[in-house]
């Protein structure tokens, strides 16, 4: 095991989350070392997305704790990126694929009206090529297929230069070819970052 893999990226201990009076997660314990690729599988409604949101600090925790690189989630938002389910993203917003990925270069304290550098644009061009969408860079996102849209979201995540990438059902509503391409891309990206995905797709954790 290399030194990178020995560092704990995510630590979850006795995590309990409620939605109102409903217990969504109970006594969840989990450690993920830096450099690992973890697939969490389960049925729809089983609490997978809730676990990711708890890791991100987006929902209140009733009991237990979540640490990312030894700190509370809000301390690490510059190093962590979340790719949501396709169903939760507005595909009708009038913006091109290139512009979406470029927005990942925005620093937290900058506004949408901040200027992008030529280095930013070159970096994004390379990312788009890496995910195989270079011919679609100027296309409106409303014209993308499910698989193309998901790869665009992954490219945008890469533009933030994350150490930890969290993905929620990254192959839901995409065709079989796109599904295999996305899994191959994630396997390659795992050489550079820690990846956690939740899914109900057995292929994701068996490949």
Question: Can you walk me through this structure?
Answer:
The protein has 207 residues and is α/β, with parallel strands linked by helices. It has a single domain, classed as Rossmann fold (3-Layer(aba) Sandwich), CATH 3.40.50.300. It has 7 helices and 7 strands; from the N terminus they run αβββαββαααβαβα. It has a 4-stranded parallel β-sheet with strand order 3-7-6-5, with helices on both faces. A hairpin with a 2-residue loop joins β1 and β2. The two termini are 21 Å apart.
Could you give a short description of this structure?
The chain has 7 helices and 7 strands.
Q: By helix and strand content, what is the structural category?
A: alpha/beta
Strand order of the largest sheet: 3-7-6-5
Average of per-residue pLDDT values: 88
Strand content: 15-25%
Q: Based on DSSP secondary structure assignment, what is the total number of beta strands?
A: 7
How far is it from the N-terminal to the C-terminal residue, by CA?
21 Å
Instruction: Give the H and E element order.
Output: HEEEHEEHHHEHEH
What proportion of the residues is helical, as a percent range? 25-40%
**Main sheet record:** 4 strands, parallel
Poorly predicted parts: 1-5
Whole-number total of structural domains = 1
CATH class value? Alpha Beta
Give the full name of the CATH homologous superfamily: P-loop containing nucleotide triphosphate hydrolases
Write the layout of secondary structure elements.
Blueprint lengths: L2 H4 L1 E12 L2 E12 L3 E5 L6 H8 L7 E6 L11 E4 L13 H6 L15 H13 L15 H14 L4 E5 L7 H14 L4 E6 L2 H5 L1
Helix pairs in contact: 4-5
